[in-house]
Amino acid sequence: MRRMLAILSGFFASLALTLAGTVPTFAADGVTQLTWFGHAAFRIVTPKGKVLYLDPWLNNPMNPAAGKDKDALAGIDKADYILITHGHFDHVGDSVALAKKTGARLVTNFELGSNMAKLLGYPKEQMGFDTLMNIGGEIRIADGEVTVAMVPAIHSSGMQDPHAGPNAPDMVYGGNPGGFVLMIKDGPTIYDTGDTAYFSDMKLIREQYHPDVGLINVGGHFGMEPDMAAQAARAVGVKLAIPQHYGTFPILTQNPGGWAKAVGKAHIDALVMKPGTTIEFKGARRVK
C-alpha cells in the first residue's frame, strides 16, 4: 500500500510540473530536437543533450506558453547557448533574462554582444572570444558537438537603448545582421536565415555547408516576401524548409500556405510547425 501511494504521489507531482509548464532536464538520447516557439524563436537540443536557443523572444504573442498571466521563461531550467542573428527587439527578446536564469553563453556578432552587456545587462562573463564572432567565421561550441558558421544577411541590426535620454537616439549599433548555419554532429545541418532579404549568393551557403533544414523568414515587410522566401529555400538546397517570422504582427504575412505550395513545387518538403511543437531527427533524417 505504501509503495502504491509513493508511486501515485510521484505521478501526480510529475503531472503538476507538466501542467505548470516546467521543462524537465534534457537527457541525451542520440536524437536532435527542434522546437518552435513562434516568430523567430527556436530551441535545439543536440544528440548529447546540449540546449541552444535561437533568437529567443519567448514571450511573443504566438507562443502558447506566454500570455497576460504567463511568463514563457517560467518553465525553462536549462540553456547552454543563446544565438542571436541581429539586434532587433524581436530577436534579442528574452535573452538577458534567460541567460541570467541558466548561465547560457552568448553567440552573436562582437558589437552586438558588447552592447548587450553594456546596455542590457547580459552577463559579460557569459560571452567572450570563444563565442562572439562575425560573418565568414566559424566556432565550435557544446564541447565540439556543434560547429556554428555566421553567414551574411541583408537586413539591419539596430539595438534599442533602454537608457537613452530625450535627446539621444533610441537605437545603437548592433553590428552586422547575419544568419547561422549549425552543423550538429550526428544530427542535421540547420540554416537559420535571420531576417535577411533574398540574395543570389545564398547558393554559396549551399555549396559550402549543404544544409538539411532551413528556418526561413517568410513574413515580408521587414524580410523576405513569401515568393522570394521560396526561392531562398531552393537556392540553399534544403531538404526540409520551415517557415518563421510570420503572423506575429498584422503587417506580416499571416498564412504561409502560399510559400509552402511554392516550396513543394521545387520538391522540397515544407513543414508549417505550430508554436510550441517539437520535431526530432535521427542523424539528418526527420523521424517525428
UniProtKB/TrEMBL annotation:
Q: Which CDD domains does the protein's record reference?
A: metallo-hydrolase-like_MBL-fold
Q: Which domain of life is it from?
A: Bacteria
Q: Which residues form the signal peptide?
A: 1-27
Please name the InterPro entries in this protein's record.
Metallo-B-lactamas (IPR001279), RibonucZ/Hydroxyglut_hydro (IPR036866), UPF0173 (IPR022877), UPF0173_UPF0282_UlaG_hydrolase (IPR050114)
Q: Name one GO molecular function term.
A: hydrolase activity
Q: Where is the Metallo-beta-lactamase domain?
A: 38-245
- Pfam families, sorted: Lactamase_B_2 (PF12706)
**Any idea which UniProt keywords this protein has?**
Hydrolase, Signal
Question: Is the keyword Signal in the record?
Answer: yes
Q: Which Gene3D superfamilies match?
A: Ribonuclease Z/Hydroxyacylglutathione hydrolase-like (3.60.15.10)
Family named by the database record: Belongs to the UPF0173 family.
Q: What is this protein called?
A: UPF0173 metal-dependent hydrolase VA613_06875
Organism, per UniProt? Thiobacillus sedimenti
